[in-house]
Amino acid sequence: MIFQIIKQLFAACSLSILFMIVTPARTTAQEVGVSASFFFPKNGYFSIPVSPISFRDVGVNFNDFLGVETGITLYRISGLSVKDLPFDSEKPLVGPMFTVLVPLNAVLEFGFNGQRIKFRAGSFFFYNFDQKVNHGNLDRELKKFTGLEVVNAEFTSKPNIGFGYYGGIEYVIYLSNSLGLTFGGNYFIGDSKAELGGTYVGSDTAGTIITEEVSYPDSKVDFTGLELSVGILIGG
To answer: Which positions make up the signal peptide (predicted)?
Structure first.
């Protein structure tokens, strides 16, 4: 895990430095952040970013205490749960997939002795592409829900732009006037339309074959979970 984080930080930092060289027009209060973030979704699977596409803490300070930030992270999501179904699932029903995450938040920060604590709250957008259905977990949930002995499903899920809110805290220690290390955590609460549906074939205890076509138009991909990150701030 440590070597993976170092590798991601090195790659992200290299791309960030190139980005700053070719982008000279930025305010003196702006900072560019690159990080290795790790997402622990609710009822989902641990997920990692696709290095080096993780730029965070890109923002402008209005004064010593207030600012705004944005960024972008490309995640390789292993699995997310789906909610608003006629049955509850504690296992992810979609994934693996790629997810583009774009946050926008306000920042309240306090600095002391070359260190800084940042409190952030805001909203975020995300989009899942190459979104797959986890048929193994879905078959087990449909089996419990229907009471059938065996279930084999063929479902699809259409990705949609999702939206949500999040908040977090970050600790920054500056190694110089323009370089800092960051350690933080954010909690995300959001969702997107899943449009889960398809056909399943099953059999009951008597061996009767049952085929059903179902659609869950109100189903939503649940993007709720904890993100932990370590990164580098450049500029300031």
So the answer is: 1-29
Q: Give the other-Cβ count within 10 Å of 104's Cβ.
A: 13
- What is the number of alpha carbons within 13 Å of residue 223 lying toward its C-beta? 29
Block means of pLDDT (10 residues each) for the chain, 236 residues, are: 42 40 39 77 86 74 90 92 93 95 95 92 95 96 94 95 96 90 95 96 92 95 94 77
Question: Which residues are CB-neighbours of 151 under 8 A, at least 6 positions away?
Answer: 139, 142, 143, 200, 201, 202
Check residue 18 and give its pLDDT: 38
Q: Does residue 230 come out as left (phi exceeding 0), alpha (psi in the -120 to 50 range) or beta? A: beta
pLDDT of residue 17: 38
With 0-12 CB in 10 A as exposed, 13-18 as middle and 19+ as buried, what is 30? middle
What are the CA-CA distances from residue 90 to residues 80, 93, 142, 202, 227 (Å)?
10, 9, 13, 22, 19
Place of tokens 């790659």: 11
Q: Which two tokens stand for residue 71?
A: 């960024």
